Amino acid sequence: MLPLTQIFAQDVPSLPAPEGADLLQVLWCPFSAHGDLAAPGIHIKWRSSSQVGELLTQPPLPAVVGDDEYVPEPCILHPEPVTEHEYIGLLDPGLQERIYGWEDGQAEADDFEDAEPPRYQTDLSTAPGWKIGGYATWETSDPYEVVCDCGTPMNPLLTIASTEWEDETMSWTPVEDRHLAEESEANTPTRVTVGRDGSLSIFACPSNPTHAHQITLQ
User: Fold this and answer.
1) What's the domain count of the chain?
2) CA gyration radius for the chain?
């Protein structure tokens, strides 16, 4: 297994950690054939940071990997809270129609003659990039409910994305990175790619985070 990321509850107060745990560690096997949905096999470990021993200066790497794009570049991600909204296909049909009407009105407004007006799905709905919690995106499949083996609807725990922002909009690009928006390396700090430049969401059970996780690949 290859270390993918670790997240401390002190950095993400909303992290749905089980009692007695304040550290989430995610590992995966860098071979698509060893997982589900043509994605690496994922292992989730909840721990208490007080029980973590000496920190390694160099993460161990497996002798063989199936795909170099499954080997993350050592880096630090700085989480910050953002406001998201549900994927449009999961909204009430009446609300969807109101949103489409608003988008049409924006497109006709004089204020946007020289620029693309904001759209709900790309600019206001589900944030791209690596994220904790939030809403899942359903760009390549119809939305469906992810249900735990115990029967409880599951929530997104962690999204592993191939890029941090979308090419067609600057809405989700951090202000401090906008001067780097055209540089591909700035958009992929982890150097991880999943699927066809898509995103992989790990779902956890809200009633018991230690229940078996599930994934979606979009």
Assistant:
1) 1
2) 19
- pLDDT digit string (tens) for 81-136? 999 999 999 999 999 999 999 998 887 776 666 667 889 999 999 999 999 999 99
107 in a domain, yes or no? no
Total-model pTM: 0.88
Instruction: Name the residue range of residue 211's domain.
Output: 2-84+126-217
d(CA 193, CA 201): 13
Quote the distance between the C-alpha of residue 8 and its chain's center. Answer: 16
Half-sphere exposure of residue 75: CA atoms within 13 angstroms, side-chain side: 14
Q: Please provide the DSSP assignment of 96-113 as one string.
A: HHHHHHHHHHHHHSGGGT
Which pairs with CB-CB distance under 8 Å and at least 24 residues apart come from 50-58?
Answer: 52/23
CA distance 144 to 25: 27
User: In terms of residues, how long is the chain?
Assistant: 218
Q: What are phi and psi of 46, to 5 degrees?
A: -95, 130
